[in-house]
């Protein structure tokens, strides 16, 4: 199979997925990464990271007028997070389904939040809510050179390439 056939098509997109400090502290990193791997999405970036206050505020800038904003920022900087970029067709919406509803009590069993969390303020994981926000967040959390340009060799077994 020629390498050009392995290139993800134009329908592909990227999502910024982050395991929040509670997910790291509770030892859920492997389980969460595994769910995206098993689905078939491609991991393009991955790092353990201690979030500075200003980055947490910028990431959630759309929510800065909300009453829970100070607690949210405090939560995000409270310990290391795992920053990831996942790529594939429809990855943004699909990741939101894998993650589940913001309030974990409303999240379906089988989703990450449905399986592992109880309250919104400790809901274990973040996923971009649109492709445009995905790109905005990837640019915020990753520097040039931190992402890896590669395609899984199994891609033709996951996508109809
Ligand atoms: N959040 C919270 N209380 C709320 C709503 C949201 O603590 O009443 C937190 C929660 O951790 C959530 C994050 O703020 O994941 C961002 O909120 P958003 O509405 O964007 O939810 P998400 O896209 O993460 O599901």
Automatic annotation (TrEMBL):
Transmembrane segments: none annotated. It is an enzyme of class 2 (transferase). Keywords: ATP-binding, Kinase, Nucleotide-binding, Signal, Transferase. One of its GO terms (molecular function) is ATP binding. The active site is at residue 126. ATP binds at residues 20, 68, 96, 102, 113, 123. Residues 12-149 form the Nucleoside diphosphate kinase-like domain. The keyword Transferase applies. It catalyses: a 2'-deoxyribonucleoside 5'-diphosphate + ATP = a 2'-deoxyribonucleoside 5'-triphosphate + ADP; a ribonucleoside 5'-diphosphate + ATP = a ribonucleoside 5'-triphosphate + ADP. Its EC number is 2.7.4.6. GO terms for biological process: CTP biosynthetic process; GTP biosynthetic process; UTP biosynthetic process. Its cofactor is Mg(2+). Belongs to the NDK family. This is Nucleoside diphosphate kinase. It comes from Marchantia polymorpha. The chain holds residues 80 to 240 of 240 of the full protein.
């Amino acid at each position: 199979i020629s390498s050009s056939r392995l290139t993800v098509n134009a329908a592909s997109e990227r999502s910024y997925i982050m395991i929040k400090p509670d997910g790291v502290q509770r030892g859920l990193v492997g389980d969460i990464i595994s769910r995206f791997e098993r689905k078939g999405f491609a991991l393009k970036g991955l790092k353990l990271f201690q979030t500075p206050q200003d980055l947490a505020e910028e990431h959630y800038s759309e929510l800065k007028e909300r009453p829970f904003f100070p607690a949210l920022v405090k939560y995000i900087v409270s310990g290391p997070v795992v920053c990831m970029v996942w790529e594939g067709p429809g990855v943004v919406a699909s990741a939101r389904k894998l993650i589940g509803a913001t309030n974990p009590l409303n999240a379906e069993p089988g989703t990450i939040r449905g399986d592992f969390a109880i309250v919104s303020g400790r809901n274990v994981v973040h996923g971009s809510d649109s492709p445009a926000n995905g790109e905005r967040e990837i640019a915020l959390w990753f520097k040039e050179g931190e992402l890896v340009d590669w395609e899984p060799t199994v891609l033709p077994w996951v996508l109809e390439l």
